[in-house]
């Protein structure tokens, strides 16, 4: 019945993406279009004292300069769907460097940019507020970003540590890192008859609708949000950001279509970043390596105005069996823009610390790092004892280790010329989120099937997976299924984030297909059929019944059995895995390169192994970037991200990533994860990689690096050689 | 130069009043460049377009995207640091964000839209990208595809390592790198067999 | 970008005349366009010299050297048979620079005129930077200076020169031929880039108003040469440190050594004392080679966050000798 599921079908969006025909937000044009360029504050904190638009207005082609005085007063909206509670251009207070203070509108992008550079603004600057763990505070529970308990305690950690034969206590640190999707966020806004239409870069079309409806005081139905293709999100396009709001207002004020496309620099201050995270992990273990206590405390930076927090202990809450757990997450305010969830949030930073500490413990015990993980396998959720919805982590360890040759690896680091080769591994764990979703399927009498859902395409494979599910359920070739998506005129879905789309939208698609089949069966029962005749094609049945088409709507509701964060209810649900890497280090030159990697995962059903493999390779590469280069450094005097570009901030290039990356999925269907048995894979690939790399560096050189990224400065002179 | 080095001492600094005294590679006299006989034009994917009256600031990238509505080439950084805007200029891959359109009179540009045949048959590189799942969101893909075509025709697709290095001017944040490398290898083989 | 007019001079003489009158020459465009976007430069007029005839020629010199036309594209220089055979250090430096796309645009002459990659200098806003806004101070001096100079800096500027080819050309004792309103002259590559002075040296190079680089002349071939570039990313990134070396060998004995370091100062940094000390040493005596290099690094003056660059640069210099000894590219 589910013949579509599990098939490695090529992407259906292949042709439009390799020919340049796929249109992204900034590719859309309308007659009379005005180009917007933002003027942003060059100070981290203070006040805008004066702003003179006259020099900009004198630039040929500039039509209008909008300042705070031209803005409506936006109503308060929750975060999310708004990314930040403080809306742009409402007052003269500067809360972060890069905050928008004016919009220049012009007939050409050249004129808009030249005009923006000419706007004369004066500021009164206050000293920036820098990250300090000593100013850690508990987040407000009013922020929806605070979806977990900041503190979790179970058992007696001091007693567990006192009784331990071995203890490891260490601090870990990572700098802010930006999402840097290749597409800069952009919005084209146009008003017609009191209705607003946006073409925008978004991971959540409906979220943009709700955010703007709230801020502008409009009924949601009067806002249509279109996002046919989004050029990478990774969390940067999950919620509603200034480009969407300001483009909408600029179009309203001018009565013309307005395109507001962020520059790359503006991406650094108006779409978030993974915050700076400082962590401390303390582990106790008995002589056999069984954990007696786990303590994991973290502090991450947030803005002056929003309570975003990185729950770095999220992985520690679910990873290992231990009688005593003590977890805490705090945030510290800075005068930077708000951070944001970034692939992989929470577990991503946290598992760097936990899995590094586990490697330190394995070394202290003289135990194979994999054996230490196996000895502490959690057969039930260690935070509350609930059974797992499904878990095949033991298989993932074993099958991954076999693929990598972990058991056969040289105990002493091998040499290859100037390179020292080290191997390392880490466990992976990820929370999967759930959002309600709906979808509609229409069968037409000509045999074509139209599948409709508001969901968006950010490259995760959903344009292939959803038709695959529909075709499988209906027993028709996928070529007959057309997907309409990326539009709030279509049935509502949640965001493409939180590793949720396949499981949730996919379930709605499956539900719609099953309902359509049931209706077809009902029609068939009413039609006289000749005994022993071959099964009738559904469209033939439709024609015989005199119907032009037949539709059904399907739904997926969360809370049955899991809540939005995927962990309430009778079972605990997580995805699991293990990542193994071989890294080459040249200590004389401080160089580190990835030689090969194996990622082995227990994540429930895989709907399309081909797109799933690509997503995991992307995740491992993401983790390599975290381990080896990514850092958005903040100047301490200026309180701003120093480099806001791709020439001064390194992300991995092709030459960094070897072809020898093997991805393995354990054969698994999670019976509790929803009707598809799929849990979600968007983020787990990025988890654990940085720890595996740091552990491999330790294996190669004996040097333990606890500050990311691992740069030449930290590797120079490492190792006996 | 350091005082230790005898070699350059052979060459006293030339104070020549005339350019004719310079090295033989230099033009002896001022040669007028071929004066444009007609209005400046630029050929894009075979079609000739007028460049007259263009704002000198307009980059090739903005011109393609805003004037010609050829939006395959993307603006990912606008500083030559990502490769999303890669096009072929007289057959060579370049960053379209770093070229002023007004300087291109008489030259020829191929964008991703110009690679497939008129009958819709994909270029072998395009087909290989689909076959190897060498993209996800698709935003960097037009630049990757154009760059890959050049990488192969330049003769830089001889090995996995060579492809990885010569394709490193195109960032992919979804990180389809191993699949891109495989696609380039495959397409190079197909093109060598004359399937192009 | 602020508005400008675009001139297309038909001759070198016209180009230098335009440049003397304030026009900025536009060749590959890979730097100039970004300067204009960032506000580092705001010329009222550009002179498009990219198609001046003859200036992209690569031709042998009568003394056995090689002349590289300033407008030759980087990839064309690296691919030229004479460069391939005689100047591996230059070929490698070019291939380690930028990306294939950028190297198809960037010219060998323009590449030498790259400005520093100091992030304060390159910001999209004007930050305290004497090189960008004279008198505004140097934010890097006590700021984030991990990638900055260890040689030749002043309190006014601690930036480095980022060109890879320039380092190779420095090691090759190249000479830059320039043409200007007052005629032509030759500048040894080592004298082209200026170290900062006490005020921060707004001038990057010794070029005078209106002067345009027309060619780069290489002395006779240096087949035993190599370039090493160190960076966290494997490709398409500026160097933390680089090293160019050219050796003349007698069997396994060094007869003459030329070494230049990149990204350690505002110019390619030759190591004359080390070069002299290396003469006569065996390639196989690593301890002696290391000892010969060591004094050059005693003179280094690291900043608050870049002390690691001193041993890194020393190791790079040693390694590049090893690369030449092994006869292969990195």
TrEMBL record, chain A:
Among Pfam families, the record links this protein to:
Ald_Xan_dh_C (PF01315), MoCoBD_1 (PF02738), MoCoBD_2 (PF20256)
Keywords, ordered alphabetically: Molybdenum, Oxidoreductase
Q: What Gene3D superfamilies does the record point to? A: Aldehyde oxidase/xanthine dehydrogenase, a/b hammerhead (3.90.1170.50), Aldehyde oxidase/xanthine dehydrogenase, molybdopterin binding domain (3.30.365.10)
Describe the location of the Aldehyde oxidase/xanthine dehydrogenase a/b hammerhead domain by residue ranges: 19-127
The record's section on InterPro entries has: Ald_Oxase/Xan_DH_a/b, Ald_Oxase/Xan_DH_a/b_sf, Ald_Oxase/xanthine_DH-like, AldOxase/xan_DH_MoCoBD1, AldOxase/xan_DH_MoCoBD2, AldOxase/xan_DH_Mopterin-bd_sf
PANTHER family registered for this protein in UniProt: ALDEHYDE OXIDASE 1-RELATED (PTHR11908:SF132), XANTHINE DEHYDROGENASE (PTHR11908)
Q: What is this protein called?
A: Xanthine dehydrogenase family protein molybdopterin-binding subunit
- State the organism of origin: Falsiroseomonas selenitidurans
What lineage does UniProt assign to this protein's organism?
Answer: Bacteria, Pseudomonadati, Pseudomonadota, Alphaproteobacteria, Acetobacterales
UniProtKB/TrEMBL annotation, chain B:
Task: Write down the PROSITE patterns for this protein, in alphabetical order.
Answer: 2FE2S_FER_1 (PS00197), 2FE2S_FER_2 (PS51085), TAT (PS51318)
Question: Any idea which UniProt keywords this protein has?
Answer: Iron, Metal-binding, Oxidoreductase, Signal
User: Which is a Pfam family this sequence falls into?
Assistant: Fer2
Gene3D superfamilies from the xrefs?
A: 3.10.20.30, [2Fe-2S]-binding domain (1.10.150.120)
- Signal sequence span is 1-30
Q: Which residues form the 2Fe-2S ferredoxin-type domain?
A: 38-115
Q: Which InterPro entries match?
A: 2Fe-2S-bd, 2Fe-2S-bd_dom_sf, 2Fe-2S_ferredoxin-like_sf, 2Fe-2S_ferredoxin-type, 2Fe2S_fd_BS, Aldehyde_Oxdr_Iron-Sulfur, Beta-grasp_dom_sf, TAT_signal
Instruction: Identify this protein by name.
Output: (2Fe-2S)-binding protein
**Organism field:** Falsiroseomonas selenitidurans
Lineage, highest ranks first: Bacteria, Pseudomonadati, Pseudomonadota, Alphaproteobacteria, Acetobacterales
From TrEMBL, chain C:
Instruction: Tell me yes or no: is Flavoprotein among this UniProt entry's keywords.
Output: yes
Q: What is this protein called?
A: Xanthine dehydrogenase family protein subunit M
Q: Tell me which species this is from.
A: Falsiroseomonas selenitidurans
Q: Which domain of life is it from?
A: Bacteria
- Print the keywords alphabetically: FAD, Flavoprotein
Gene3D superfamilies reported for this sequence: 3.30.465.10, CO dehydrogenase flavoprotein, C-terminal domain, Uridine Diphospho-n-acetylenolpyruvylglucosamine Reductase, domain 2
The record ties this protein, via SUPFAM superfamilies, to: CO dehydrogenase flavoprotein C-terminal domain-like (SSF55447), FAD-binding/transporter-associated domain-like (SSF56176)
Q: Where is the FAD-binding PCMH-type domain?
A: 1-223
Q: Does the keyword Repressor apply?
A: no
One Pfam family of this chain: CO_deh_flav_C
Q: Which InterPro entries match?
A: CO_DH_flav_C, CO_DH_flav_C_dom_sf, Diverse_Substr_Oxidored, FAD-bd_PCMH, FAD-bd_PCMH-like_sf, FAD-bd_PCMH_sub1, FAD-bd_PCMH_sub2, Mopterin_DH_FAD-bd
């Amino acid at each position: 019945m589910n013949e579509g599921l599990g098939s490695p079908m090529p992407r259906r969006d292949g042709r439009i993406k390799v020919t340049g025909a796929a249109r992204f937000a900034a590719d859309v044009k309308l007659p009379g279009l005005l180009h917007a360029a933002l003027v942003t504050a060059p100070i981290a904190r203070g006040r805008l004292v004066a702003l003179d638009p006259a020099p900009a207005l004198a630039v040929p082609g500039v039509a209008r300069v909008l300042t705070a005085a031209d803005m409506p007063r936006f109503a308060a909206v929750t975060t999310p769907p708004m990314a930040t509670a403080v809306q742009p251009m409402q007052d003269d207070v500067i809360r972060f460097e890069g905050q928008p203070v004016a919009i220049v509108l012009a007939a050409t992008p050249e004129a808009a940019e030249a005009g923006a550079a000419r706007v004369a603004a004066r500021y009164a600057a206050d000293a920036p507020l820098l990250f300090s763990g000593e100013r850690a505070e508990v987040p407000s529970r009013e922020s929806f970003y605070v979806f977990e308990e900041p503190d979790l305690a179970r058992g007696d950690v001091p007693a567990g540590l006192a009784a331990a034969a071995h203890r490891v206590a260490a601090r870990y640190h990572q700098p802010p890192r930006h999402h840097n999707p290749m597409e800069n966020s952009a919005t084209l806004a146009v008003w017609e008859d009191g209705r607003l239409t946006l073409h925008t870069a978004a991971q959540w079309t409906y979220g943009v609708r709700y955010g703007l409806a709230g801020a502008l005081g409009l009924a949601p139905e009067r806002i249509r949000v279109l996002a046919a293709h989004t050029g990478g999100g990774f969390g940067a396009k999950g919620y509603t950001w200034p480009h969407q709001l300001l483009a909408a207002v600029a179009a309203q004020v001018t009565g013309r279509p307005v395109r507001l496309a962020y520059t790359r620099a503006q991406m650094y201050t108006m779409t978030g970043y993974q915050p700076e995270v400082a962590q401390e992990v303390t582990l106790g273990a008995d002589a056999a390596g069984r954990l007696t206590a786990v303590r994991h405390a973290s502090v991450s930076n947030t803005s002056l105005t929003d309570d975003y927090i990185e729950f770095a202990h999220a992985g520690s809450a679910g990873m290992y069996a231990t009688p005593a757990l003590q977890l805490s997450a705090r945030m510290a305010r800075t005068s930077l823009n708000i951070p944001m969830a970034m692939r992989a949030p929470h577990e991503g930073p946290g598992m760097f610390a936990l899995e590094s500490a586990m490697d330190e413990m394995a070394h202290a015990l003289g135990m194979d790092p994999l054996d230490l993980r196996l000895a502490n396998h959690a057969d039930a959720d260690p935070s509350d004892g609930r059974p797992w919805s499904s878990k095949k982590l033991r298989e993932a360890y074993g099958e991954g280790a076999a693929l990598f040759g972990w058991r056969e690896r040289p105990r002493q680091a091998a040499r290859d010329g100037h390179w020292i080769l080290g191997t390392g591994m880490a466990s992976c764990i990820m929370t999967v989120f759930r959002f309600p979703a709906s979808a509609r399927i229409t069968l037409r009498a000509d045999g074509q099937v139209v599948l409709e859902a508001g969901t968006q395409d950010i490259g995760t494979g959903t344009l292939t997976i959803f038709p695959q599910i529909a075709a499988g359920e209906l027993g028709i070739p996928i070529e007959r299924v057309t997907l309409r998506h990326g539009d709030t005129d279509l049935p509502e879905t949640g965001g493409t984030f939180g590793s949720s789309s396949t499981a949730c939208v996919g379930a709605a698609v499956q539900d719609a297909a099953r309902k359509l089949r049931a209706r077809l069966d009902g029609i068939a029962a009413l039609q006289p059929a000749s005994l022993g005749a071959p099964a009738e094609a559904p469209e033939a049945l439709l024609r015989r019944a005199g119907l032009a088409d037949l539709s059904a709507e399907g739904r997926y509701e969360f809370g049955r059995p899991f809540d939005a964060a995927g962990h309430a209810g009778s079972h605990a649900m997580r995805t699991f895995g293990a990542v193994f890497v071989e890294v080459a280090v040249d200590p004389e030159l401080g160089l580190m390169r990835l030689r090969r990697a194996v990622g082995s995962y227990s994540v429930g059903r895989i709907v399309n192994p081909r797109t799933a493999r690509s997503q995991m390779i992307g995740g491992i590469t993401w983790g390599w970037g975290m381990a080896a280069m990514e850092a958005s450094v903040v100047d301490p005097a200026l309180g701003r991200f120093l480099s806001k570009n791709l020439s001064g901030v390194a992300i991995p290039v092709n030459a960094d990533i070897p072809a020898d990356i093997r991805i393995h999925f354990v054969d698994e269907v999670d019976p509790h994860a929803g009707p598809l048995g799929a849990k979600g894979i968007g983020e787990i690939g990025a988890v654990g990689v940085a720890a595996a790399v740091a552990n491999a560096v330790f294996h190669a050189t004996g040097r333990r690096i606890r500050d990311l990224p691992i740069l030449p400065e930290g590797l120079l002179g490492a190792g006996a050689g | 130069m350091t005082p230790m080095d005898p070699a350059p001492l052979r060459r006293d600094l030339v104070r020549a009043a005339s350019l004719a005294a310079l090295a033989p590679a230099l033009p002896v006299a001022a040669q007028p460049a071929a004066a444009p006989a007609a209005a400046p034009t630029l050929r894009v994917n075979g079609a000739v377009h007028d460049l007259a009256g263009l704002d000198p600031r307009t980059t090739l990238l903005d011109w393609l995207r805003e004037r010609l509505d050829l939006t395959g080439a993307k603006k990912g950084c606008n500083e030559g640091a990502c490769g999303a805007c890669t096009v072929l200029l007289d057959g060579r891959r370049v960053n379209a964000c770093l070229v002023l359109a007004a300087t291109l009179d008489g030259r020829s540009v191929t964008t991703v839209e110009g690679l497939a045949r008129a009958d819709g048959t994909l270029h072998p590189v395009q087909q290989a990208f689909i076959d190897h799942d060498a993209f996800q969101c698709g935003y960097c893909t037009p630049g990757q595809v154009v760059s890959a075509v050049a990488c192969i025709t330049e003769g830089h697709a001889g090995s996995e390592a060579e492809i990885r290095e010569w394709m490193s001017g195109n960032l992919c944040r979804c990180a389809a790198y191993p699949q891109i490398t495989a696609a380039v290898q495959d397409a190079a083989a197909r093109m060598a067999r004359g399937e192009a | 970008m602020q508005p400008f007019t675009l001139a297309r001079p038909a001759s070198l003489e016209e180009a230098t005349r335009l440049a003397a009158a304030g026009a900025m020459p536009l060749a590959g465009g890979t730097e100039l366009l970004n300067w204009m976007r960032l506000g580092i430069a705001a010329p009222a007029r550009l002179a498009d010299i990219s198609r001046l005839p003859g200036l992209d020629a690569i031709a042998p010199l009568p003394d056995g050297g090689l002349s590289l036309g300033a407008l030759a594209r980087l990839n064309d220089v690296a691919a030229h048979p004479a460069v391939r055979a005689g100047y591996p250090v230059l070929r490698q430096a070019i291939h380690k620079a930028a990306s294939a796309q950028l190297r198809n645009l960037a010219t060998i002459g323009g590449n030498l005129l790259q400005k520093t990659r100091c992030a304060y200098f390159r910001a999209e806003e004007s930050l305290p930077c004497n090189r960008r806004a004279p008198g505004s101070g140097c934010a890097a001096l006590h700021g984030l200076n991990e990638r900055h100079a260890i040689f030749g800096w002043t309190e006014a500027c601690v930036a480095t020169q980022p060109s890879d080819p320039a380092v190779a050309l420095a090691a090759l004792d190249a000479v830059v031929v320039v043409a200007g309103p007052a005629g032509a002259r030759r500048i040894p590559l080592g004298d082209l880039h200026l170290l900062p002075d006490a005020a921060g040296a707004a001038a990057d190079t010794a070029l005078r108003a209106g002067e345009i680089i027309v060619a780069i002349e290489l002395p006779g071939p240096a087949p035993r040469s190599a370039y090493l570039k160190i960076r966290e990313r494997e490709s398409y990134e500026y160097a933390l440190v680089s090293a160019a070396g050219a050796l003349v060998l007698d069997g396994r004995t060094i007869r003459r050594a030329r070494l230049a370091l990149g990204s350690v100062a505002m110019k390619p940094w030759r190591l004359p004392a080390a070069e002299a000390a290396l003469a006569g040493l065996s390639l196989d005596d690593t301890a002696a080679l290391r000892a010969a290099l060591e004094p050059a690094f005693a003179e280094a003056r690291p900043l608050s966050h870049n002390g690691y660059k001193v041993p890194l640069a020393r190791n790079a210099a040693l390694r590049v000798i090893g690369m030449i000894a092994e006869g292969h590219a990195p």
